[in-house]
Design a protein that fits this description.
Rossmann fold, Dihydrodipicolinate Reductase, domain 2, 2 domains, 5-stranded parallel sheet, 33% helix
């Protein structure tokens, strides 16, 4: 499907995603799900043979597979405009996000980047400055914002159905680090325990930023300060694998965020409960096609993902692809982030203005907030759990 004033598909380059990692394949699947883009180039691995093998697996010409990101950009800029990529997707370890995104923006390309956006707040702020300077589209793959019932909840709150939001409880609980030997060189994801490659916060950055972003996305609450306690329960690890954070918002609402990657038997259990003055909502990522609304003294309501039903609002319906009863989940939510960013890329390419701040997809400013959340949680935990500013 081509749904664009450009009358062509957008052209994508992928950085990372080679070898056994899963997230690069997720990016490719999500980006191409709606038929609006083609993956045409990439720096898939630092090993040339592996990069070319990945190119073949992705259906990319091996001559457009690189080991060096700058070489990829130089090659693209040397090509005629009708062959050149439109955007770069970054699916690499955290420490590479900033230099790659910076180089892509300076070269004039749009960027879709994994979270957290950078390992340092100053670098995140520099990317925001570059987005403002270049007018490029920048999307951050907090993909949980793409679920239909997450967007349903967001519009319900924005329209006042819950009244003023007073408290939120969010958690993201996993168990994959339980029993992992951090000294094993082949262990997947072990770079996440290296402060130089990961940044100062491990679990709080890896899954805590997802929980924090989900709260901000759905409720619109403005954080004022944070107090956190981060722990390291895995023997031999340098960085956190468990923690709690309390965020006080500007309206005095409280957000409680719990994160873990060492809880036995837990997989990707991201959940959120929102208390408003009129009602409360709850949603869970592992059961993403239902949303629960509760009011004191009344029967609880279960909203199914049902684009043909009158109880769904415009935002929820717009995020659906399938009729009711056919589950939509991770890939479709990820693709919703992509396709919303594509709309703005088309606007940019055709000279139409786009708003880089007020977007349906997480943007560069959400990325800045996420990195600030990590840094201030770490600072709070290291300074006797004192309150740290968030604005």
């Amino acid at each position: 499907m081509i749904n664009s004033p450009l009358n062509r598909r957008l052209r994508m380059a992928l950085c990372g995603g080679g070898g056994a990692g899963f997230i690069g394949k997720v990016h490719r699947t999500a980006a191409t799900l709606d038929g609006r883009t083609d993956l045409v180039a990439g720096a898939f691995s630092s090993n040339l043979d592996r990069s070319r093998e990945s190119a073949v697996a992705f259906g990319v010409d091996p001559d457009r597979a690189f080991t060096d990101f700058q070489a990829l950009l130089d090659d693209e800029l040397a090509r005629p405009e009708n062959e050149r990529i439109d955007f770069v997707s970054i699916a690499t370890p955290n420490f590479l996000h900033f230099p790659m995104a910076k180089a892509a923006l300076e070269a004039g390309f749009n960027v879709i980047c994994d979270k957290p956006m950078t390992t340092r707040l100053a670098d995140a702020q520099e990317l925001a400055r570059l987005v403002e300077q270049t007018g490029a589209v920048f999307a951050l793959t907090h993909n949980y914002t793409g679920y239909p019932l997450v967007r349903q909840a967001r519009e319900m709150i924005a329209s006042g159905e819950l009244g003023e939001i007073r408290a939120v409880r969010a958690s993201y609980v996993q168990g994959w680090m339980r029993g992992v030997d951090p000294a094993a060189p082949a262990a997947r994801g072990m770079w996440k325990d290296d402060p130089e490659k990961n940044g100062p916060g491990a679990t709080v950055g890896d899954v805590g930023t997802h929980a924090f972003n989900l709260v901000r996305y759905i409720t619109g609450l403005q954080p004022a300060e944070v107090l956190a306690k981060l722990m390291t329960y895995s023997e031999g690890r340098q960085l956190d694998d468990y923690g709690h954070a309390i965020v006080r918002c500007q309206n005095d609402a409280l957000i409680m965020i719990t994160v873990s990657q060492v809880t036995h038997g837990r997989l990707n259990d991201l959940s959120i409960e929102i208390d408003g003055e009129k009602a409360s909502l709850s949603w869970r990522q592992e059961e993403p096609n239902t949303l629960t609304l509760r009011r004191t003294g009344k029967a609880q309501q279960i909203f199914d993902r049902h684009p043909g039903a009158d109880f769904m609002n415009e935002s929820g319906i717009a995020a659906c692809r399938l009729p009711a009863g056919h589950p939509e989940a991770f890939f479709e939510a990820f693709a919703n982030v992509y396709t919303a960013a594509f709309d703005d890329m088309v606007k940019r390419a055709t000279g139409e203005a786009h708003d880089a701040c007020n977007t349906v997809y997480p943007n560069v400013y959400d990325g800045v907030e996420g990195v600030r959340f990590i840094e201030q949680c770490v600072a709070s935990s290291q300074n006797d759990n004192t309150w740290q500013p968030m604005c």
